[in-house]
Amino acid sequence: MPENDDPRWPSDDKDTSSTEPKGTKGEGQSTVWLPMSGLANGKTEELSVPKVTPESGSWFEPVVEVEDEPDVPVTPTPQWSAFAPVTPVEPEKPERPAEPKTVFVKPAQSQRGDEPDWDQFDRGAATPSRDPEPRQEPPVQEKAVQDIPRRPEQNRVEPPRPAPVPSATMHARPVRIEPAEKRFDAEATVGIQKPEPPSEEPPAAAAAPKPKKRKRKVLVITAVVVVLLLAGVGGASAMPKVSNRLGLPWAPNAPKADIPKPAGISRVLHGPDINGAGPTKDGLASALAGPAGSADLGTLTGTVVDAATGDVLWDKNSGTPLTPASTTKILVVAAALLSLDHGMQIPTKIVQGADPGTAILVAGGDPSLTSLPLGTDSPLYPGAAHVDDLVAQVKKATGGKITKVQLDVSLFKGPTAAKGWDPEDTAAGNTYMAAVVPVMADGGRNDPKSDHAPRIANPAAALTQKIAGKLEAQAGGTTTAPKDAKVLGEVKSQPLVEFANSLLQLSDNMLADVLARQIAIAKGGEASFTGGAAATMDVLKQAGFDLTGVQINDGSGLSDQNKIPAKVLSEILAVAAAPDGKDPRTAKLRPLLAGLPVAGGSGTLEKRYADPASAAGRGWVRGKTGTLSGVNTLAGVVLDTDGRMLVFALMSSGSDQNKGRAALDVVAATLHQCGCR
């Protein structure tokens, strides 16, 4: 509406300008009366509803035909709205009975000239807004969304048409009344954006609530994160490992009672009791009567000795020679400890060959070389030398100019298998043994980490091929290295004590037989099975041990032709376990005890002593095992309940492997439980 127009109101409540003359399209129809008498009292008595329908062929534009109207006194419409009766155009098709109708409201005569009478509206009706300018929108059809036919084009938004300049003859625009007590012009069609009602507040004030929403969103996210963190921490703290480490009250390891007061400690290690009263022969005989008489033991021989006094406390045919199996290794290790320096190391060399570019691997008798990379210790032979170390030395010495690698295995003599061995013992794929040669990697196994891995057929040749490959050279067969040849590289085994420890823990047959040859070499004998056996017995005899009935053909005990009485085993162990200073041989033989496997804890005894009958011996019995077909032996030491060191040697012949082992374990466990006075 132009700003210079004055608002005017009709002179009465009747609209006489909308009546159509007869003969027109809407003949006989007129706008329904809008009685306004109740508006003065704040009530609306009746409202007229014009019918506005889309023109045929259009889904978006309402059509309202406006006829020329007779001149009637017109009062200018107030600035905030333009109210005037309107005559609707009837549609060509019959209208739907449930179709919503547009509501028109005719205001009452203003009481103050240029301002509307605000008291004329119902308290429940919407209060009109003050618009500075008239709405630039066409008359709209107020129609429920669900009643308008749906087509794809319906989602388009049509721009509003410019509204005609308000005049005295202008029809009133439809008004939408909303529950918020505000009036808005009705939309022309569905899809046209609804105009926002004018606001008296500045735009900044309207945008003020947005930061609150963001703040609320941030608070919600923060709360969720905190809850998740608390849940995660709570879940983690419920885990046994976490709760134990943090010392939480619900930890499985949490103290179930008050923490006891600290107990006094002593930094002095106490050895076996050598001064108190030891077990008596009668007491021990009574304790062992049942376990030693078990039928599962077949033919049993054995003896028990008090290490502190050397007295024999129990004996059962201990002088009878029987097949010792792997307890033969006790004799070999004892002879090595008595005759060799405990720090002795077995060398392996690569020397310059007679031809340029030729290197010779000189075998020194060490089968414990490991093929594992440098920095990775062998789990089978801790402290063993590395093949890669030897190769690196050769590369540094020659600049990598090696074309051929040959092998010198002249150190060992005689056959590679002993008398009394099963032919399968040295066959490829066997897990017990390989051909006894003076050099190999990982004891001849194809897996450097597994004691039960299969052995390869020719371990010395396989190592030569491996070294040649690392030097990018060819393997050139066997030869004898020239005397005083230039050494290109050399590595050494672990010291004798550690070598012997690995031998006893694993009951390693290869290490035992090459160690017997080292004894023979040190004594000036032949490095063979015969030479090794002879050197071993000579050393023990010279050390004062009675070897009556002893017959050995190898150092490993694989030969079923070996014979050793139980008392020889017990005498050697008793000297090793004697009190310090009592026997001059003890200091040299003491490392023998350290290498014995622990019941239920290490070596060949690791998986034994799990039965209830022998469980008492777990951690207390230390012994060397021996097993062949029909043969089960066990010799070692154990502390009784009084802390007394007892030495035992038990040899069973004609017994089942599993039952015989279990029966021997019960005897040894009984010794631990015995006070036997």
From TrEMBL:
Annotated Basic and acidic residues bias: 1-25, 90-99, 144-159
SUPFAM superfamilies in alphabetical order: beta-lactamase/transpeptidase-like (SSF56601)
Entry keyword annotation includes Transmembrane helix: yes
Keywords: Carboxypeptidase, Hydrolase, Membrane, Protease, Transmembrane, Transmembrane helix
Single GO molecular function: serine-type carboxypeptidase activity
Listed transmembrane segments: 218-239
Lineage: superkingdom: Bacteria
Disordered: annotated span: 1-172, 192-213
Swiss-Prot/TrEMBL GO biological process terms: peptidoglycan metabolic process; proteolysis
InterPro entries: Beta-lactam/transpept-like, Peptidase_S13
Pfam families attached to this UniProt entry: Peptidase_S13
Family: Belongs to the peptidase S13 family.
Name the record gives this protein: D-alanyl-D-alanine carboxypeptidase/D-alanyl-D-alanine-endopeptidase
